[in-house]
């Protein structure tokens, strides 16, 4: 791997021990993946921020670092809403440890924005190189925006944040961005349960695995692309997908798309995933809700009261920017939490069954929260939480 003179100096420890360790990590990663060089990144998004997932050893490793990030850097969701953790039932000792993790990141110069939708906060342009860790954000940045990022591990993303560069391999390179299979969604135009993009992504991820799919037959909007990508990254390991006529790089690969191994997913298969099952709680906002999704949930909840816990997750940035929607949602008894999510917080662990509107949460809630998961549309989730009719 070719290093510049400045990169060599960092590797030799001339800029301090932490920058040396971070450079060693990047060079090690680059060698494993046969990168020829490091490439500058515009921003970083670091996972490994929830105390639930990193625990004591992760905190100790972070506390041993002494450097500053050199590009705009934010965090993945942490284990609790930083303001409302008490009402969410988070134990004080967990909250104390979570605050220690956040304090370390702050000392490193990381902005304490904790969200899996970093593109709502950080400006991201087509073709730009990034070092993002959250799989759903990676899928969105690559696919919906046409930026370039591999799915970084937590330490790799932090190393890239501190050095400002990442090894140039995988999805940073043109040759790895071409589609490898085609997926035709049939009967998807009519909306309804069969038009559930999270459920479609859940099924498609199982087919695609870690390959790059090219979709025909769908017209997803930005929030639909977000839902699809998140689900495919969870049920498979998809980090980039193209949708004919929709995503920015799809046109370039259209001639190739007709020559690929083709699979079909029908609206009936998608609807079949949305089975009824009694649940104890309902959670939405995986990935974190956009302003449009908060608006839709507020509309669905108008004039209703929740009869079982209903939790909505979004970024702090959007919760603060959409106070009236949040108040309208919370008038029903639902709660809108920021900084955290249904999977990385211990707050959902007390429920044995949870209904979600997300293909990603549907894939992760059983293993991460120990609960049975049911998936439905947003309207079905609201109906499950409120019962039929006004409360
Ligand atoms: Fe985001 Fe948590 Fe889902 S990090 S994508 S809300 S599992």
Question: Structural class, judged by helices and strands?
Answer: alpha/beta
What helical percentage do the residues reach? Answer: 40-55%
Strand order of the largest sheet: 12-11-10-13-14
**Main sheet?**
5 strands, parallel
Q: What are the low-pLDDT stretches, counting only 5+ consecutive residues below 50?
A: none
Question: Which fold does the CATH topology of the largest domain refer to?
Answer: Aconitase, domain 3
Determine the N-to-C terminus distance.
Answer: 64 Å
Write the H/E string, N to C.
Answer: HHEEHEHEHHEEHEHEHEHEHEHHEEHEH
Number of structural units classed as domains: 3
Bound molecules: FE3-S4 cluster
State the shape. Answer: globular
Counting DSSP H or I runs of 4 or more residues, the number of helices is: 15
* Radius of gyration (Å): 21 Å
Number of separate strands: 14
CATH architecture of the largest domain: 2-Layer Sandwich
Q: Into which percentage range does the β-strand content fall?
A: 5-15%
Oligomeric state of the chains in view: single chain
Mean pLDDT: 95
CATH class of the largest domain: Alpha Beta
Strand-helix topology:
Layout: H1 5-11, H2 17-32, E1 38-40, E2 44-46, H3 51-63, E3 73-75, H4 92-107, E4 131-132, H5 135-145, H6 154-163, E5 165-167, E6 181-186, H7 197-208, E7 213-216, H8 222-235, E8 242-243, H9 250-257, E9 262-266, H10 267-273, E10 281-289, H11 291-301, E11 310-314, H12 316-321, H13 323-330, E12 335-338, E13 353-356, H14 359-369, E14 372-375, H15 378-386
FE3-S4 cluster (F3S) binds next to strand 10 and helix 14.
């Amino acid at each position: 791997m070719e290093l510049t003179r400045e990169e060599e100096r960092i590797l030799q420890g001339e800029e301090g021990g932490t920058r040396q360790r971070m450079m060693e990590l990047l060079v090690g990663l680059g060698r494993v993946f046969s990168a020829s060089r490091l490439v500058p990144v515009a921003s970083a998004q670091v996972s490994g921020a929830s105390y639930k997932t990193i625990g004591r050893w992760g905190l100790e490793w972070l506390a041993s670092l002494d450097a500053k990030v050199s590009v705009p850097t934010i965090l993945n969701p942490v284990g609790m809403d930083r303001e409302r953790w008490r009402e969410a039932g988070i134990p004080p000792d967990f909250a104390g440890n979570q605050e220690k993790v956040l304090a370390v990141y702050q000392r490193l110069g990381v902005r304490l924005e904790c969200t899996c939708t970093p593109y709502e906060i950080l400006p991201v342009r087509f073709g730009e190189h990034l070092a993002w860790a959250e799989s759903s954000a990676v899928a969105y940045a690559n696919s919906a925006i046409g930026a370039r990022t591999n799915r970084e591990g937590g330490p790799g993303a932090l190393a890239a944040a501190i050095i400002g560069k990442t090894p140039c391999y995988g999805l940073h390179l043109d040759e790895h961005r071409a589609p490898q299979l085609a997926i035709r969604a049939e009967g998807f135009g009519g909306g309804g349960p069969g038009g559930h993009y999270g459920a479609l992504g859940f099924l498609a991820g199982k087919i695609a695995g870690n390959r790059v799919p090219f979709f025909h037959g769908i017209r997803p909007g930005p929030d639909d692309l977000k839902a699809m990508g998140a689900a495919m990254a969870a049920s498979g390991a998809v980090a980039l997908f193209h949708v004919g006529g929709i995503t920015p790089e799809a046109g370039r690969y259209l001639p190739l798309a007709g020559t690929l191994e083709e699979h079909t997913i029908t609206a009936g298969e998608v609807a079949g995933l949305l089975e009824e099952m009694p649940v104890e709680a309902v959670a939405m906002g995986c990935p974190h809700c956009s302003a449009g999704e908060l608006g839709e949930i507020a509309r669905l909840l108008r004039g209703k009261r929740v009869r079982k816990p209903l939790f909505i997750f979004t970024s702090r940035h959007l919760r603060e920017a959409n106070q009236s929607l949040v108040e309208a949602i919370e008038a029903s008894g639902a709660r809108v939490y920021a900084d955290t999510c249904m999977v990385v917080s211990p707050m959902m662990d007390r429920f044995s069954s949870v209904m979600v509107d997300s293909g990603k949460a549907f894939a992760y809630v059983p293993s991460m929260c120990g609960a049975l998961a049911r998936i439905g549309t947003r309207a079905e989730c609201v109906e499950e939480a409120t019962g039929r009719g006004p409360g």
